[in-house]
Design goal:
The protein has seven helices and no strands. By secondary structure, it is mainly alpha-helical. The two termini are 33 Å apart.
C-alpha cells in the first residue's frame, strides 16, 4: 500500500476505525501538506537524484531533515498507540492462532 499518499493512508486507517487526521492535527498537516510536506522531502531525498551522503547537507539542511524524521516517527507512534489501544488483544490472538495451526 502506498502509505506515502495522504488519501490512501487516511482511508486505510479509517477502515480499522482510526482517524489519523484527528490524532495530532499539526503533525498530520506537517507530514502530508500539499506543498513542502515531510513525506515529499523524504521521497525527494531517498528517491530523487541519489546524492552521495556527503552532498546531502549541501542541498538539505540537516536540522530540517532531523526535525522531519522526528515528526514522522512521532506520527507513526501515535498511530500505533491508537491501534494498540483499540485492538490490544489482536497480537495475542494472532500468536494463539499461529500456535494452534502448528499443533
Amino acid at each position: 500500500m502506498p502509505f506515502q499518499e495522504k488519501d490512501t493512508t487516511r482511508d486505510c486507517f479509517r477502515f480499522v476505525d482510526i482517524e489519523v487526521t484527528e490524532l495530532e492535527t499539526r503533525l498530520w498537516r506537517s507530514v502530508f501538506a500539499k506543498k513542502g510536506s515531510n513525506i515529499q522531502l523524504r521521497h525527494e531525498i531517498i528517491h530523487g537524484d541519489q546524492l552521495p551522503l556527503e552532498d546531502i547537507e549541501k542541498y538539505y539542511n540537516v536540522d530540517t531533515i532531523e526535525k522531519i524524521l522526528i515528526e514522522i516517527t512521532k506520527f507513526v507512534y501515535l498511530i500505533e498507540e491508537e491501534r494498540f489501544n483499540k485492538y490490544k488483544y489482536s497480537e495475542e490472538h494472532a500468536i494463539f492462532l499461529e500456535k494452534l495451526n502448528r499443533e
